[in-house]
Amino acid sequence: MQGNFITTRLNAMLGWGRKYSLFHYPYVTACCGMEYMSAACAHFDIDRFGAGWTRFSPRQSDLLLVIGTISQKQAPVLRTVYDQMTEPKWVIAFGACAVSGGIYDNYAVVQGVDQVIPVDIFIPGCPPRPEMVLDGLLKLQDKIQKTKQDWRWKKQQS
Amino acid sequence: MEETAILDALKERFPKGVVEASVPLGDATVVIRRDALLAIIPFLKEKPYEFAVLLDLTCVDYPERAERFEMVYHLFSLVTNKRLRIKLSVPESAAVVDSLVRFWKNADWLEREVFDMFGVRFAGHPNLRRLFMNDDFEGHPLRKDYPLRKRQPMIQLRK
To answer: Which pTM value belongs to this model?
Structure first.
Protein backbone atom coordinates (compact mmCIF):
# COMPACT_ATOMS: atom_id res chain seq x y z
CA MET A 1 0.00 0.00 0.00
CA GLN A 2 2.69 2.38 1.01
CA GLY A 3 4.65 1.57 -2.15
CA ASN A 4 1.65 2.40 -4.34
CA PHE A 5 1.24 5.70 -2.56
CA ILE A 6 4.81 6.66 -3.37
CA THR A 7 4.39 5.54 -6.98
CA THR A 8 1.29 7.67 -7.60
CA ARG A 9 2.86 10.67 -5.91
CA LEU A 10 6.01 10.28 -7.95
CA ASN A 11 3.89 9.95 -11.09
CA ALA A 12 2.08 13.18 -10.27
CA MET A 13 5.32 14.95 -9.49
CA LEU A 14 6.92 13.85 -12.74
CA GLY A 15 3.84 15.02 -14.64
CA TRP A 16 3.96 18.35 -12.88
CA GLY A 17 7.62 18.74 -13.69
CA ARG A 18 7.25 17.74 -17.29
CA LYS A 19 4.21 19.84 -18.13
CA TYR A 20 5.82 23.06 -16.90
CA SER A 21 9.16 22.53 -18.61
CA LEU A 22 8.26 21.99 -22.25
CA PHE A 23 11.14 22.82 -24.55
CA HIS A 24 9.51 23.29 -27.91
CA TYR A 25 10.87 22.94 -31.40
CA PRO A 26 8.91 25.06 -33.91
CA TYR A 27 8.77 23.27 -37.27
CA VAL A 28 7.50 26.30 -39.18
CA THR A 29 6.74 25.93 -42.88
CA ALA A 30 4.01 28.44 -43.63
CA CYS A 31 1.97 31.48 -42.62
CA CYS A 32 0.87 29.93 -39.30
CA GLY A 33 4.41 30.77 -38.22
CA MET A 34 3.37 34.40 -37.83
CA GLU A 35 0.66 33.34 -35.41
CA TYR A 36 3.14 31.15 -33.57
CA MET A 37 5.42 34.18 -33.23
CA SER A 38 2.70 36.28 -31.69
CA ALA A 39 1.77 33.42 -29.36
CA ALA A 40 5.39 32.95 -28.35
CA CYS A 41 6.31 36.60 -27.92
CA ALA A 42 5.39 39.14 -25.28
CA HIS A 43 1.74 39.83 -26.16
CA PHE A 44 0.50 36.30 -25.49
CA ASP A 45 3.66 34.79 -24.08
CA ILE A 46 3.61 31.01 -23.79
CA ASP A 47 6.46 31.42 -21.32
CA ARG A 48 3.76 32.06 -18.71
CA PHE A 49 2.82 28.39 -19.07
CA GLY A 50 6.33 27.05 -18.84
CA ALA A 51 6.84 26.54 -22.56
CA GLY A 52 9.00 29.55 -23.26
CA TRP A 53 12.21 27.77 -24.14
CA THR A 54 12.47 27.56 -27.92
CA ARG A 55 15.15 25.05 -28.85
CA PHE A 56 16.20 25.03 -32.48
CA SER A 57 17.59 21.54 -32.13
CA PRO A 58 15.22 18.57 -31.99
CA ARG A 59 17.69 16.78 -29.71
CA GLN A 60 17.14 19.35 -26.97
CA SER A 61 13.36 19.62 -27.21
CA ASP A 62 10.41 17.54 -26.08
CA LEU A 63 7.50 19.37 -27.76
CA LEU A 64 7.31 19.44 -31.54
CA LEU A 65 5.09 22.18 -32.95
CA VAL A 66 4.24 21.35 -36.56
CA ILE A 67 3.24 24.75 -37.88
CA GLY A 68 2.08 24.94 -41.48
CA THR A 69 1.65 22.86 -44.61
CA ILE A 70 3.66 19.64 -44.79
CA SER A 71 4.28 18.54 -48.37
CA GLN A 72 5.00 14.97 -49.37
CA LYS A 73 8.61 15.95 -49.92
CA GLN A 74 8.87 17.25 -46.36
CA ALA A 75 7.37 14.17 -44.73
CA PRO A 76 10.70 12.28 -44.47
CA VAL A 77 12.34 15.37 -42.94
CA LEU A 78 9.56 15.77 -40.40
CA ARG A 79 9.81 12.11 -39.39
CA THR A 80 13.58 12.43 -38.97
CA VAL A 81 13.11 15.48 -36.76
CA TYR A 82 10.58 13.58 -34.66
CA ASP A 83 12.84 10.55 -34.38
CA GLN A 84 15.72 12.74 -33.21
CA MET A 85 13.76 14.17 -30.28
CA THR A 86 14.38 12.71 -26.86
CA GLU A 87 11.72 10.81 -24.90
CA PRO A 88 9.27 11.71 -23.51
CA LYS A 89 8.03 13.82 -26.41
CA TRP A 90 4.79 15.38 -27.54
CA VAL A 91 3.51 16.81 -30.81
CA ILE A 92 1.08 19.64 -31.51
CA ALA A 93 -0.39 20.00 -35.01
CA PHE A 94 -0.79 23.75 -35.37
CA GLY A 95 -3.26 25.11 -37.92
CA ALA A 96 -5.61 23.59 -40.49
CA CYS A 97 -2.86 22.44 -42.87
CA ALA A 98 -0.97 20.50 -40.23
CA VAL A 99 -4.22 19.05 -38.85
CA SER A 100 -5.77 17.84 -42.11
CA GLY A 101 -3.99 19.34 -45.09
CA GLY A 102 -6.39 22.29 -44.94
CA ILE A 103 -7.40 23.67 -48.30
CA TYR A 104 -4.63 21.73 -50.01
CA ASP A 105 -6.47 18.57 -51.00
CA ASN A 106 -4.01 17.78 -53.76
CA TYR A 107 -1.10 15.68 -54.97
CA ALA A 108 1.58 17.60 -53.10
CA VAL A 109 0.39 17.88 -49.51
CA VAL A 110 0.22 15.38 -46.63
CA GLN A 111 -3.39 15.22 -45.43
CA GLY A 112 -2.61 15.77 -41.77
CA VAL A 113 0.73 15.24 -40.03
CA ASP A 114 -0.75 12.34 -38.03
CA GLN A 115 -0.10 10.35 -41.20
CA VAL A 116 3.60 10.89 -40.56
CA ILE A 117 4.08 11.13 -36.79
CA PRO A 118 1.81 10.60 -33.75
CA VAL A 119 0.06 13.82 -32.70
CA ASP A 120 -1.17 14.69 -29.19
CA ILE A 121 -3.06 17.93 -29.71
CA PHE A 122 -4.71 19.32 -32.84
CA ILE A 123 -5.20 23.09 -32.99
CA PRO A 124 -7.51 23.96 -35.90
CA GLY A 125 -7.86 27.37 -37.49
CA CYS A 126 -6.50 29.10 -40.54
CA PRO A 127 -4.48 30.36 -38.77
CA PRO A 128 -5.51 29.69 -35.14
CA ARG A 129 -5.74 32.69 -32.85
CA PRO A 130 -3.03 32.82 -30.17
CA GLU A 131 -5.76 32.21 -27.58
CA MET A 132 -6.44 28.86 -29.24
CA VAL A 133 -2.75 28.08 -29.14
CA LEU A 134 -2.68 28.81 -25.42
CA ASP A 135 -5.79 26.68 -24.96
CA GLY A 136 -4.15 23.85 -26.86
CA LEU A 137 -1.04 24.18 -24.77
CA LEU A 138 -3.10 24.00 -21.55
CA LYS A 139 -4.89 20.92 -22.86
CA LEU A 140 -1.54 19.31 -23.59
CA GLN A 141 -0.35 20.12 -20.09
CA ASP A 142 -3.53 18.51 -18.77
CA LYS A 143 -2.83 15.45 -20.85
CA ILE A 144 0.78 15.24 -19.67
CA GLN A 145 -0.33 15.50 -16.03
CA LYS A 146 -2.92 12.74 -16.44
CA THR A 147 -0.79 10.20 -18.30
CA LYS A 148 1.10 7.46 -16.58
CA GLN A 149 4.65 8.77 -16.69
CA ASP A 150 7.29 6.77 -18.42
CA TRP A 151 10.12 5.92 -16.01
CA ARG A 152 12.89 4.36 -17.92
CA TRP A 153 14.80 3.12 -14.86
CA LYS A 154 11.68 1.43 -13.50
CA LYS A 155 10.95 -0.33 -16.78
CA GLN A 156 14.42 -1.76 -16.94
CA GLN A 157 14.08 -3.23 -13.44
CA SER A 158 10.90 -5.16 -14.17
CA MET B 1 3.32 52.27 -80.49
CA GLU B 2 -0.17 50.86 -80.34
CA GLU B 3 -0.83 47.32 -79.13
CA THR B 4 -1.70 46.25 -82.65
CA ALA B 5 1.53 47.51 -84.20
CA ILE B 6 3.55 44.52 -83.05
CA LEU B 7 0.79 42.17 -84.15
CA ASP B 8 0.69 43.71 -87.62
CA ALA B 9 4.45 43.49 -87.89
CA LEU B 10 4.38 39.82 -86.91
CA LYS B 11 1.64 39.04 -89.42
CA GLU B 12 3.56 40.78 -92.16
CA ARG B 13 6.90 39.17 -91.34
CA PHE B 14 5.56 35.65 -90.60
CA PRO B 15 2.40 35.17 -92.69
CA LYS B 16 2.58 31.38 -92.30
CA GLY B 17 3.73 31.31 -88.69
CA VAL B 18 1.00 33.49 -87.21
CA VAL B 19 -2.33 31.70 -86.81
CA GLU B 20 -4.29 34.40 -85.08
CA ALA B 21 -3.68 37.83 -83.57
CA SER B 22 -6.01 39.69 -81.26
CA VAL B 23 -6.08 42.15 -78.38
CA PRO B 24 -8.37 40.58 -75.75
CA LEU B 25 -8.93 42.99 -72.85
CA GLY B 26 -6.12 45.21 -74.10
CA ASP B 27 -3.37 42.55 -74.11
CA ALA B 28 -1.67 41.90 -77.43
CA THR B 29 -1.95 38.16 -78.01
CA VAL B 30 -0.62 36.15 -80.91
CA VAL B 31 -1.26 32.48 -81.60
CA ILE B 32 1.55 30.96 -83.61
CA ARG B 33 2.44 27.64 -85.17
CA ARG B 34 4.67 25.43 -83.05
CA ASP B 35 7.46 25.26 -85.66
CA ALA B 36 7.59 29.05 -86.05
CA LEU B 37 8.68 29.72 -82.46
CA LEU B 38 12.42 29.73 -83.03
CA ALA B 39 12.05 32.13 -85.97
CA ILE B 40 9.71 34.55 -84.21
CA ILE B 41 11.58 34.88 -80.90
CA PRO B 42 14.82 36.40 -82.32
CA PHE B 43 12.72 38.82 -84.35
CA LEU B 44 10.97 39.98 -81.18
CA LYS B 45 14.21 40.29 -79.21
CA GLU B 46 15.83 42.55 -81.77
CA LYS B 47 15.21 46.24 -82.40
CA PRO B 48 12.83 47.98 -82.52
CA TYR B 49 10.73 45.73 -80.24
CA GLU B 50 13.41 44.47 -77.85
CA PHE B 51 11.35 42.09 -75.76
CA ALA B 52 14.19 41.56 -73.34
CA VAL B 53 12.17 40.06 -70.47
CA LEU B 54 10.48 36.68 -70.39
CA LEU B 55 7.86 37.41 -67.74
CA ASP B 56 6.31 33.97 -67.71
CA LEU B 57 6.33 30.69 -69.53
CA THR B 58 3.60 28.26 -68.67
CA CYS B 59 1.19 25.71 -70.04
CA VAL B 60 -2.56 25.02 -69.99
CA ASP B 61 -4.23 21.65 -70.44
CA TYR B 62 -7.40 21.56 -72.53
CA PRO B 63 -8.30 17.84 -72.69
CA GLU B 64 -11.19 18.42 -75.10
CA ARG B 65 -8.96 19.90 -77.81
CA ALA B 66 -7.26 17.88 -80.51
CA GLU B 67 -3.94 19.46 -79.50
CA ARG B 68 -4.52 19.45 -75.79
CA PHE B 69 -1.62 21.52 -74.41
CA GLU B 70 -1.29 25.22 -74.97
CA MET B 71 2.01 26.89 -74.18
CA VAL B 72 1.75 30.52 -73.09
CA TYR B 73 4.68 32.95 -73.17
CA HIS B 74 4.53 36.45 -71.73
CA LEU B 75 7.14 38.89 -73.01
CA PHE B 76 7.88 42.41 -71.85
CA SER B 77 9.87 45.14 -73.54
CA LEU B 78 11.75 47.58 -71.34
CA VAL B 79 12.25 49.94 -74.27
CA THR B 80 8.70 50.28 -75.52
CA ASN B 81 7.00 49.32 -72.22
CA LYS B 82 4.81 46.83 -74.08
CA ARG B 83 3.78 43.31 -73.30
CA LEU B 84 3.11 40.47 -75.71
CA ARG B 85 1.47 37.11 -75.12
CA ILE B 86 2.41 34.23 -77.40
CA LYS B 87 0.40 31.03 -77.50
CA LEU B 88 0.96 27.80 -79.33
CA SER B 89 -0.72 24.43 -79.11
CA VAL B 90 1.00 21.10 -78.61
CA PRO B 91 -0.49 17.64 -79.19
CA GLU B 92 -0.08 14.96 -76.54
CA SER B 93 1.32 12.47 -79.06
CA ALA B 94 4.29 14.70 -79.86
CA ALA B 95 4.56 16.94 -76.81
CA VAL B 96 7.82 18.61 -77.75
CA VAL B 97 8.45 22.35 -78.00
CA ASP B 98 11.67 24.15 -78.80
CA SER B 99 13.47 25.34 -75.69
CA LEU B 100 14.00 29.07 -75.15
CA VAL B 101 16.90 28.71 -72.72
CA ARG B 102 19.33 30.08 -75.30
CA PHE B 103 17.29 33.33 -75.41
CA TRP B 104 16.37 33.75 -71.76
CA LYS B 105 18.13 32.02 -68.90
CA ASN B 106 15.03 32.09 -66.73
CA ALA B 107 13.35 29.83 -69.26
CA ASP B 108 15.45 27.03 -67.77
CA TRP B 109 13.43 26.54 -64.58
CA LEU B 110 10.14 27.65 -66.16
CA GLU B 111 10.48 24.92 -68.77
CA ARG B 112 11.46 22.41 -66.13
CA GLU B 113 8.31 23.33 -64.23
CA VAL B 114 6.15 22.83 -67.32
CA PHE B 115 7.87 19.50 -67.96
CA ASP B 116 7.28 18.46 -64.35
CA MET B 117 3.64 19.48 -64.20
CA PHE B 118 2.45 18.73 -67.76
CA GLY B 119 4.99 16.39 -69.34
CA VAL B 120 5.72 18.69 -72.26
CA ARG B 121 9.33 18.16 -73.36
CA PHE B 122 11.64 20.91 -74.57
CA ALA B 123 14.03 20.26 -77.42
CA GLY B 124 17.44 21.75 -76.70
CA HIS B 125 16.97 22.17 -72.97
CA PRO B 126 20.30 21.63 -71.18
CA ASN B 127 18.94 19.92 -68.06
CA LEU B 128 15.35 18.76 -68.45
CA ARG B 129 14.57 17.23 -65.04
CA ARG B 130 11.64 17.59 -62.70
CA LEU B 131 11.69 20.86 -60.78
CA PHE B 132 9.15 20.46 -57.94
CA MET B 133 8.23 16.82 -57.59
CA ASN B 134 10.65 14.10 -56.52
CA ASP B 135 12.44 12.27 -59.30
CA ASP B 136 10.52 9.01 -58.86
CA PHE B 137 7.12 10.74 -59.01
CA GLU B 138 4.90 9.08 -61.59
CA GLY B 139 2.76 11.14 -63.95
CA HIS B 140 2.31 14.87 -64.32
CA PRO B 141 0.06 16.31 -61.62
CA LEU B 142 -1.37 19.36 -63.38
CA ARG B 143 -2.73 17.34 -66.29
CA LYS B 144 -6.51 17.27 -66.06
CA ASP B 145 -6.54 13.47 -66.18
CA TYR B 146 -4.27 13.13 -63.13
CA PRO B 147 -6.57 11.78 -60.37
CA LEU B 148 -7.45 14.57 -57.94
CA ARG B 149 -6.94 12.47 -54.81
CA LYS B 150 -4.03 10.37 -55.99
CA ARG B 151 -1.16 10.53 -53.49
CA GLN B 152 2.40 9.39 -53.94
CA PRO B 153 3.97 9.59 -50.47
CA MET B 154 7.75 9.37 -50.24
CA ILE B 155 7.66 7.41 -46.99
CA GLN B 156 5.31 4.78 -45.56
CA LEU B 157 2.43 6.71 -43.98
CA ARG B 158 1.00 5.66 -40.63
CA LYS B 159 -2.57 5.20 -41.93
So the answer is: 0.85
Domain ranges in chain B are 3-97
Domain membership of residue A47 as a residue range: 20-147
Angstrom CA distances, B29 to B16, B61, B82, stand at: 16, 18, 12
Interface mutation target, options B148, B154, B159, chain A, most CBs of A under 10 Å = B154
- B70-111: pLDDT as tens digits: 999 999 999 999 999 999 999 999 999 999 999 999 999 999
B-chain CB neighbours of A110 within 8 Å are 153, 157
Nearest of B11, B41, B159, B23 to residue B101 by alpha carbon: B41
pLDDT tens digits, B113-148:
999 999 999 999 999 999 999 999 999 999 999 998
Residues in chain A: 158
Residue A8: count of CB within 10 angstroms of its CB? 11
Architecture of domain B3-97: 2-Layer Sandwich (3.30)
Nearest CA in chain B to A73: B154
